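Input chain follows. Return structure tokens only.
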Amino acid sequence: MLTNDRLCEMALELPGTERGTSWGQPVVKVGKKSLFFWNPKYGPVFGMDFATRDFWIEIDPETFHTTDHHQNYPCVIARPERVDEDWVRERLKESWRRNAPKKLQKEWDGRI
């Protein structure tokens, strides 16, 4: 089962990342932007566009979902007891690419 500690460990493997907090929960940031959010009630929340979010929910609703509150935000919630670590690593890399400063991305282009 994925924990916030494990998620932070995985995110900290990416270049230029550092620990931080968001809404009182531990997160990992790059360039002052969080790579994910951990909702204590639901588990990890990953930012992505609405179409991608809807795709994941459609193909695996037992793992991915949203809530009434999160429905209007471009993100998906993953059930920590079901989500695959390889899937998580790919989402972290995507988030890193969206949020890392361009200079850092150029330095690491092709390495991650």
